[in-house]
From TrEMBL:
This is Tripartite tricarboxylate transporter substrate binding protein. The chain crosses the membrane at residues 334-357, 377-406, 412-434. It comes from the Bacteria. Keywords: Membrane, Transmembrane, Transmembrane helix. Belongs to the UPF0065 (bug) family. Pfam families: TctB, TctC. PANTHER family: BLR1237 PROTEIN, TRICARBOXYLATE-BINDING PROTEIN.
Length: 445
């Protein structure tokens, strides 16, 4: 007679279930967890500086952490796309910039102003042109004469290829009867690192806003040759405009906060009201005045009108014949993933061919188990990317890590136990201690 063993719930399973259910408590009221503020540009630039100040003040208003994430790359494509495609739950905002009006005209992405719900226009700044203090050009006219006599001898930066500061400089060159690419543009993601390159003689000129270079101007390390504004900037009264120096050219950019489309109305209104209080606070206004940033707030409807106006303007500029050298890019945004997948396909093909050419007495035609295991890791990575925003980090990571370990022939109690311990620990380290936003998904944890 076979003795019946009592049923016991395996310890790892119970531990995993407890870990997954720990965050299920329902929504206590919006917002009840950290908010992510995406900045499409590098740390140290004007957009990053404003983003971090707004985030710090929003934390006080909302009572939850507001974490700035610099999602750089692709001339602004990465950050703007990430913001537009984020889950519309009110926990992701984006500091959108004028490049949003330019990227789709350049064929870099199909993301445009209509993919966002505007929250608030924060400020608008005119472009300005900077050189090192020891540069030979003392005025815009002297620089004009040098470029006309030595086309493509100078290098400039300030943002990515085809960004607003690049278009501002290229537009001035075109307006003066020169080619838009007579000054070679070096793409760098942001004014901060571009000014660093200017100081180290990596470039000869930087085109950006006055506030972004204010510290170097005060230190006497850079000289501003002019600002592309209709009139002098109040906080920089000594800087002449381009028009004062005989050039009928003006150009600038804007930045503001936006949400992905589809955010519930109550949450969007809550955020809009909080941002409105922040930008009218004494702390914010003093910061903007001290930093030299123009303060020109506008509510959602007016912000939408500004974006639509700039979109029409940029469409006319970037599709014109003079700007074809600016509009063209040598490599598209899909070049890297395309190369990676092609290399993977070539490696897989080589393995299949080599296995198929073996003689029967030497080895099997192909090690199918080996190929399956080889494809497991990229397959699980793709599954994670597809599921994490919906199911959340904890559920997705726990399930996929357990399945991957079992697929690699790890005993299932060990796989479940490892996932039950490792996933919550990584969540606590990154989401709590390091304040890196991770998707919550179904569990609210």
């Amino acid at each position: 007679m076979t003795r019946r063993q009592p049923f016991r719930t395996p310890g790892p399973i119970a531990l995993l279930l407890l870990a997954l259910l720990a965050g299920c408590g329902g929504e206590k009221g919006y917002p009840d967890r950290p908010i992510m503020l995406i900045c499409p540009w590098s740390a140290g630039g004007g957009t990053d500086t404003v983003s971090r100040k707004v985030a710090a003040l929003l934390e006080q208003e909302l009572g939850v952490p507001v974490n700035v994430v610099n999602a750089t790359g692709g001339s602004g494509v990465t950050g703007h796309t990430r913001g537009a495609l984020a889950v519309p739950d009110g926990y992701t905002m984006t500091m959108i910039t004028v490049e949003l009006n330019m990227l789709h005209w350049r064929g870099l992405t199909n993301i445009g102003p209509d993919d966002f719900r505007p929250v608030m226009l924060l400020n608008r700044d005119a472009a300005a042109l900077f050189v090192r203090e020891d540069a030979p050009w003392k005025s815009l006219g002297e620089l004009h004469e040098y470029v006309a006599a030595h086309p493509r001898a100078l290098k400039a930066s300030g943002t990515a290829q085809g960004g607003i500061w690049h278009v501002s400089l290229a537009g001035w060159l075109d307006a003066e009867g020169m080619r838009a690419d007579d000054i070679i543009w070096i793409p760098i993601n942001g004014a901060g690192p571009s000014l660093d390159a200017l100081m180290s003689s990596g470039v000869d000129l930087v085109c950006c806003s006055l506030p972004e270079a204010a510290a170097l101007m005060e230190a006497g390390r850079v000289r501003c040759l002019g600002v592309m504004a209709e009139e002098r900037i109040a906080d920089f009264p000594d800087v002449p405009t381009f028009r004062e120096q005989g050039s009928d050219w003006a150009m600038g950019g804007w930045r503001g906060l936006a949400l992905p489309r589809g955010v519930p109305e109550e949450r969007a209104e809550r955020l809009t009201a909080a941002v409105d209080r922040v930008i009218h606070s004494e702390d914010y206004l003093e910061f903007m005045e001290h930093s030299g940033f123009n303060v020109s707030p506008a509510p959602p409807d007016q912000f939408r009108e500004v974006m639509e106006q700039f979109d029409r303007q940029m469409g006319q500029i970037l599709t014109g014949e003079a700007f074809q050298s600016v509009r063209r890019t040598r490599y598209g945004p899909m070049i890297f993933p395309t190369v990676v997948f092609l290399l993977m396909a070539v490696i897989l093909l080589v393995l299949v061919v080599r296995g198929g050419l073996r003689r029967a007495e030497d080895a099997p035609a192909i090690d199918r188990r080996g190929l399956v295991r080889m494809g497991m890791v990229p397959g699980f990575v793709m599954a994670y990317l597809l599921l994490v925003e919906t199911a959340g980090y904890v559920v997705t990571a726990a399930v996929l890590l357990s399945a991957l370990m079992v697929g690699l022939r790890v005993r299932w109690p060990v796989a479940l136990g490892t996932a039950a311990v490792l996933v919550p620990i990584t969540y606590q380290v990154f989401a709590v201690l390091l304040r890196v936003p991770l998707p919550w998904g179904w569990l609210g944890w």
